[in-house]
Amino acid sequence: MTDAHKSDLFLVMVTLLAAISWMFSKEAVLLMPPLLFMAVRFLLAGSLLAVVAHRSLRRLSADQLRRSVGVGLVFGIAMSCWIMGLFHASHVGEGAFLTSLGVVIVPIIARVVFKEPQPASTWIAIPIAVAGLALLSLKNGFRPELGQLFFVSAAFIFALYFTLNTRAANQRTVINRRGENIQKHRVPALPLTAIALLTVGTVTLIESLALESWGSLRGNVSLVLVWWVVASAVIGTAGRFLLQTYAQSLSANSHGVVILVLEPVWVALFAAGWFAETMVLSQLAGCALIFAALLVNRWGVLSKALRGWLRGQSRA
Prior knowledge:
By secondary structure, the protein is an all-alpha fold. The protein is 78% helix and 3% strand. The protein is built from 14 helices and 2 strands; from the N terminus they run ααααααααββαααααα. α6 (101-114) crosses α7 (120-137). The longest helix has 28 residues, at 223-250. It is globular.
């Protein structure tokens, strides 16, 4: 199996783990402060990976450590917005589609921040995605719900995180101010993920201490709550993000993005079964437009993959 095929398989598994994690997290934030939940979840997951990665962590250079912490800081801000969106959300499936706008935003971040050229399909996809966002938001007139605003904010920051994570996980050459070529060594997936998760846990813990009251948690800790937290930490965080980082180290940005399109689809299906969620016609149309924007945005990758599959079928 080639690296590209491994990446495909792993990223499909990532979308399933991510969708399941939405369910675990929604259950948990009903029982405890959302930012505190994120702090416990990510510190537990990061500590678990750090124990496994202790040897490789000691071998990291100062530059690799700095880049890993930078990824974690951006990731922490994104996850803070995401969990507050989930806490205020009335529809989990809708939130997943709003968050998936980050997939469309990835190439914009790459173009504006890192000067990477982008295909015309990117600029076609953006207005389609905005139209989908409008359909999801306009059920309250021009007053989007607070949860929706948090999800859209998270989408923008997740796009930056995804770009930085991929760049950290892959070796590349950069030009410094003197015009010299500097080799940026890749950060192995395990220590990169461990540091990023611990950084997220630290960021959300500081936010929780500043913004939340923990008094409601007293006497409310149960085996059910412990299960949701542990499941979120081990399955939805340590397992999911380690697998995602490793998969990103095997593929380019665009390739990873097209696979992650599946996540909101799984979330919508799981939410319908788990929470008995339903959507009105305008919301379904909005989700469909956002999904269409994701496909248009990566049409070059999709068409190339389709042509390759058709050639393989014709030879068979």
